[in-house]
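Case study 2.
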Amino acid sequence: MRKTLFVPAVSALALLAATAAQAATFSPEATAFMRFRGSVDIFDGNLNLNCDMELEIRTTFKDMNGDNQAYVDSASLSGGLCNLVSFGSFPYEIRVTRPSWSPTPTPATGLEIRGLRLTNVFGNTCWGDVRVDWWDSAPYMTFMNAYVPGGCTINGTLSQTGGFSLSITN
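Prediction:
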């Protein structure tokens, strides 16, 4: 009797876990050159700089479930001494962190830019995952003293300035 009840219970839990996994949808799909720009403060352990930052995002085609990915294909800093710090090792995958899951498509409010790499002329490299706040309506992203492993922080807001308007749901 116990074995008979155990198998359906495990099967039900496995099915529930499978439906809880929901990937993000980045719209429009299969689109490049979505440009974001804004003023940021960069601290990389040696330098504290106020810079203009620009990055470009692209999205992939949707899979059979209607999910797809987005990547930062380029990022740059300009103004003052900001050319002393550069980004490298593209692309950076973008993942949704908030909401973590929803039974219906819900606008994202938090993102993680994975594998972001900053290097300065002194050889200091910061490399890792960075969390940003996301506002789908504008759209724009805010780095709130975002820590990059290796001793760097980014603080500021980037607004979309070019390309099709990016929308992210989870």
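The chain has one domain: 22-169.
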